[in-house]
Amino acid sequence: MELLESVNWALIAPLIIIQLILMAVALVDLIKNDKTNGPKWMWAIIILVVNIVGPILYFVIGRRNH
Amino acid sequence: MNQWFILLKKEFLEMSRNYKWVWVPITFILLGILDPLTSYYLPQIIDSVGDLPEGTVIQIPEPSAAEVFIMSLSEYQLIGILIIVLSTMAIVSGERKSGVVQLILVKPVSYFSYITSKWAGALILISSSLFLGMLASWYYTGVLYEFLPFSDFLAAYWAYALWLILVLTLVVLCSAALKHPGATAMVTLITVFVLNLVGGSLTHALEWSPTQLPLYVSERLTTNQWPEHIWPAAGLAALFTFAFLVMAILLFKRKELAD
């Protein structure tokens, strides 16, 4: 608990918020898209579990442009 | 000119549909603020994860603000370049594959406007993302350590932007020349990393090489003075960018005429 108090949340909060934005945008796009490269459920797990890198991987590899 | 702006608008529309305007700036900002945060909270991080025996004392020298800023800039040198390559590798070849190129070029659109509008769109995306990311990094370093003068930030920004724009232009050139986005990514990444390796080991022979720009930025931040070779290196970077762009247009033209 001591650790949590020593952290400056005004600086950590933006980090968490933009990570969440990235994740949310990737998930919304995944749901809206009909087709992805690879199964959809797999991408959902990757986006949710792999921090930062997961959504980026989805945008770079997983998205199929039509 | 009017037509060129319409093409540029199309680029912007496409980049927002691909969410590039969301994930590229966000990634650059994350890259910028992660290093100041982790180096500042390193003692706490070690405390919470390490099973160190009671009484262990680890002395971590506190880095200076300039050192932290340089450290976070080095992220752009590695992961930043990777993001640039991955986000723009299909810039020309992707449209060629999907047939959009043919749709555009049946209209009286010159090869010049087609390539330069694409290049300008990517350039605006990357340079504004880099600006936001470096600004965030500068701010976090300032709050956690000590504020560097804003002129230091601007100096670091333009030199880094010049170097990354050169990389971006190389991606555009490869994308115009090669069919597969994967091949484009491979060729550019290998070229850039080999050049960096050569530049890093032959610092004295290649003082004018644009690959030295990030190194010169570090020097500028630690000594508060530009090294003398910054201007030729910057000039060459601009010259190479221009040459790559011209080559991209010529190659693209020849390829399209051959088809």
Automatic annotation (TrEMBL), chain A:
Keywords: Cell membrane, Membrane, Transmembrane, Transmembrane helix. Pfam families: PLDc_N. It is found in: Cell membrane. Residues 21-63 form the Cardiolipin synthase N-terminal domain. It is a multi-pass membrane protein. The chain crosses the membrane at residues 7-28, 40-61. One of its GO terms (cellular component) is plasma membrane. This is PLDc_N domain-containing protein.
Automatic annotation (TrEMBL), chain B:
It is a multi-pass membrane protein. It holds the Pfam family ABC2_membrane_3. Keywords: Membrane, Transmembrane, Transmembrane helix. The chain crosses the membrane at residues 21-42, 76-94, 115-140, 160-178, 185-206, 230-252. One of its GO terms (molecular function) is ABC-type transporter activity. It is found in: Membrane. GO terms for cellular component: membrane. The keyword Transmembrane applies. The keyword Cytoplasm does not apply. Residues 79-250 form the ABC-2 type transporter transmembrane domain. This is ABC transporter permease. The lineage of its organism: Bacteria, Bacillati, Bacillota, Bacilli, Bacillales.
